[in-house]
Amino acid sequence: MSWFLICTSYTINVFAVIGLGLDGFLLGMHILAIVYARIYMNKKPPELMKTQLAGVSILKPLKGVDPNLEDNLETFFDVDYPEFELIFCIQDLNDPAHEVVSRLMKKHSSIPARIVTGGSKIGANPKINNLMPGYEVMKYNYFWICDSGVRALPLTLRDLVSKMEDKVGLVHAVPYTANRKGFSSTVEKIYFSTHHTRIYISAHVLSFICMTGMSTLLRKDYFEDATGGLDKLSQYIAEDYFMAKSLADSGYKMKLASYPALQNSGKYGVQSFIDRMTRWTKLRIAMVPLAVLLEPLSECFLSGLAFSWACLYFFKWNMLVVFLYHVLVWFALDYVLFRQLENGHLQLSKCDFLFAWFVRETLTPYIIFSALWDPTISWRTGKYRLRCGGKAEEVLAV
């Protein structure tokens, strides 16, 4: 037998083994996420003495308004916590969010709250620029950065603080969505309750850095020791990833909150979801170029094709039958994880879940292709070009 045929045979065998191993690994991720969610997610925080609850500065970066903004912000005035301050960071004094916040501050006059305006142009990241004045005037060592589109539960802050044990520098929350009307909100909910949660929880358990900054509690002393200050993150668009990396590299630990971060933006749609996922994919490719190869293989259909082909090669099993069984099992496990995130309060039928799940899965190739086609990112007030390693430079104001 020629060397060419021998090499070809070995290569095919390697790819077939990878197909089997990949599916086994992804199955393990499914089970790990389901078990973790069952044990730890949506659990009421322990009762702590008032002296054990450190004061918290809540930083809310705001730009513009949407139909749900006022309701979302009001949930932060209503958190069940003995000592906190609300700092609303609004870059432009004429921003309509200023009026919304002023109305809420008047309604909840007993809650310590203030508005800081102006921002600080210290880097490419507009969120960091907006947050800097609030960061400089906050009075507590614990500070909670939470996006404008997130709504809080009464016990959310207690849950976050209860995880702040010794050497813990950061507590973050699994991104999820509140219940909203419309098919597009269902697609978004399916993504965050299945694919995203599966990877998010698995990465956390296996001590890989995977976090989003939409709801993050930090200790300022640890944070500044690790990063040098919030301004040092302004060169990155994915500031959340690099703050977590800096803390981990400095020996600090990270914890995952029991309550998810409930996204509740009033502006949403399928195209908005696609644009957001495309932006996130571009960020991951810039920070971890290997992601362009690994991400498609973590999805149901492509991993199923690899697995069913491997079964055909090794065991002579019918490829179509194996693929269909693979999809059925994947769907069932995703539905179980979805039920865990919903905490028993299901508002979707199995048929609605199936249709939205199928649409979400089939959108993935288009999203990855779009991310590769145009590597620039449009976000907030600008357009940015990402360099390898995640650093960004603004190329065009929009």
* Rg, nearest Å: 22 Å
Oligomer category: single chain
Largest sheet: 7 strands, mixed
First-residue to last-residue Cα separation = 62 Å
Order of helices and strands: HEHEHEHEEHEEHHEHHEEHHHHHEEE
Shape: globular
Strand order of the largest sheet: 3-2-1-4-8-6-9
User: Share of helix among residues?
Assistant: 40-55%
Structural class: alpha/beta
Mean pLDDT, rounded to whole units? Answer: 89
User: Percent of residues in beta strands?
Assistant: 15-25%
Please tally the β strands and state the result: 13
Count of helical regions: 14
Given as residue ranges, the uncertain stretches (5+ residues, pLDDT < 50) are none
Keywords:
single chain; 398 residues; alpha/beta; seven-stranded mixed sheet; three-stranded mixed sheet; 13 strands
Any overview of this molecule?
This protein is an alpha/beta fold and 398 residues long. 52% of the residues lie in helices and 15% in strands. A seven-stranded mixed β-sheet has the order 3-2-1-4-8-6-9, with helices on both faces. It has a three-stranded mixed β-sheet with strand order 5-10-7. Helix 6 crosses helix 14, helix 8 packs across helix 9 and helix 10 crosses helix 14. The mean pLDDT is 89.
